[in-house]
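User: Could you walk me through two proteins back to back? I'd like the raw sequence and the structure tokens for each, with a short line separating them so I can tell where one ends and the next begins.

Assistant: Of course. Protein one, sequence then structure:
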Amino acid sequence: MADREFTRSELAKYTGEGGQPAYVAIDGTVYDMTNVEAWAGGKHHGNTAGQDLSDVIVKAPHKKSVLAKLPVVGKLVD
């Protein structure tokens, strides 16, 4: 895992808009969604990058199975 630490306010900057990467946190790990086609523009099925989506992913049809394919950029700390 990458050593970078993100607070919630820092993570909120990474929305995938205005040239920023699209990052989301799941269970304390921050993933880079920038090059995931389904996350184009930092949005995916009503969810927006720059947030902790731990509660959301468990309701998704794919659950956490997609996480192993994603680049890890750090961890969420509060």
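----
Protein two, same layout:
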Amino acid sequence: MNKAELVASMAEKSGLTKKDAEAALNAFMKSVEEALAKGDKVQLVGFGTFDVRERKERQGRNPRNPEQVIEIPASKAPVFKAGKALKDMVNA
């Protein structure tokens, strides 16, 4: 499902227009992005949790020259952990 299909599904289920559903989806995504950028966790009970994980600095291999070892710097990565209700729905 792409964004347009998600907006259409949201509009159908909520009774909103597609324009309003897209505005709601964009506001949700922007709110999650801003919270994660501040280092906060976004928890939706039953659905899941959006969080930021720290990745340690590590060594890797240069794909063009496998003998060459390169340093991969530490970084932060957004992650999503599905909640129990979502897992149960998917596995049903």
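The helical segments are 3-14, 18-37, 84-91.

Let me know if you want the two compared in more detail.
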